[in-house]
Amino acid sequence: MRKVNKVVLAYSGGLDTSAIIPWLKENYDCEVVAFAADVGQGDEELEGLKEKAIATGASECYIVDLKEEFVKEYIFPTITTGAVYEGEYLLGTSMARPVIAKAQVEIARKVGADALCHGCTGKGNDQVRFEGAFNALAPDLAVIAPWREWDMVSREDLLAYLAERNIKTTASATKIYSRDANAWHISHEGGELEDPWCEPSKQVWTMTVDPEEAPDQAERVNLTFNEGALTHVNGKEVSPYEGLVELNTLAAAHGVGRIDIVENRLVGMKSRGCYETPGGTVLLKAYKALETMVLDKASLKHREQLALEFSHVMYDGRWFTPLSDALIAGAASFAKYVTGEIVVKLYKGQATVTQRQSPNSLYSEDFATFGADDVYDQKHAEGFIRLFSLSSRIAALKKQGE
Fold first, then answer.
1. What is the pLDDT of residue 368?
2. Is CB count within 10 Å lower at the N or C end of the chain?
3. Is 178 a residue of the active site?
4. Among 16, 94, 180, 358, which one carries the catalytic annotation?
5. Comparing C-alpha atoms, which of 224, 215, 283 is closest to residue 248?
C-alpha cells in the first residue's frame, strides 16, 4: 500500500463515499479532501453536502460549478459527432466523467494532494473513465479505488461500518435503484431492472411524464443553430446550458427521451438500464435534421462513420486522447455548416422534426420537384447509370462468355 499524505476524493454524499472518507483515514493515515462536481444534477443533491463531508471526516469540501463547461465543452462537441452508443444510449454518464475528473485533478493540484480517489465499483465502466482521465492528466498522482481493496461487499456492510464509528447517514439498507443524474440525463439501474424480462415500473422514471399521460395537444419548439452551436430556443437567446435546461423542461412534459436498453459494458458484461434524456433527444433530432440539409452524401456518410467510432471513444473513457481530439476536430469541420432553424413537434413521448431551413442548405426544390423543371435533363441519367454500374456489367458479360 503506497504511502500518501493527502487524497482528493470524488464525493457525492452517498453511502459509498461517506464510508470511503473514514476508510481512507484509517487505512492510509492521510488527510481527505472531498470534491463534488455540480454538473446539473440538481440543487437538492448538493444541499448540505459540504457539512456532511466535514462531519464524516474530510478536512475540506470543494463544490465546483461545472454546468456551463460540461454542456459547452463536452456535450455539444459530442452532439456534433452524432455519437450514440449501440444505437440508443445518448452517453449521459459517459460525457460527465471527463469534466469531473479534470476538475478533480485541478483541486488536487490546488491543495497539494498526492493521490486521487473514486468510489466506482470494479464491475463498472466509470472506474476506467476516471482512471483513464487521471492517467492522461496527472500520471504522477496515486489512484485509490476502495471497492477494489476493501472487504465490504454490500450496503449492509457499509452501514455497519459507519454505525461502528458513530457516523450518521441518511442511507438505508433498502436502495431500490442506482441513479446518476446531470444536466443531460438521469440513469436508472438495479431493482426489478436487473431482470430483462421485467417491465420497468412507474417508480423507475423520475424526470419525464409517462407518455401515456402526456398532454393530448402537441407542442412545437423552434431551435436555432449557428455553426453547430444552439443559440436560441423559441426565439430566445440562450447559453448552451440554459438551452438544454429549457429543452429538458419542454420535452419532459411530453414524455420525450425514455429508453430501456441492455448494453455492453467495457469490462465485458451486459447491463440493463433505463435512461431519461428529454432535452438531449430533441437536440440530437434537430441537429441531425439540419445536417441532412447542409451536408452532401459523402460528407454525411463520413460523419456517420465518425459517430460510431466516437461513441465507443466516449463510452470507453478515452476523451483525453489524440484519437478523441482528431474525431472532434473532424466533426467540427462539418459543424461549421450546421446553421439554421429546426422545428420539432413534441407529442406523447415522440420528438418529430416538422420544419427545417438553413442558409447553407443544399436542398433545391428546382431539382427535387416531381413537376416540370428546366434544370435537370432526365436523359443524362442513362449514361450515369451505365458508368456507375460498369463493373457489374463487365463482370456479367465475362460470366456470360464462359
1. 60
2. C
3. yes
4. 16
5. 283
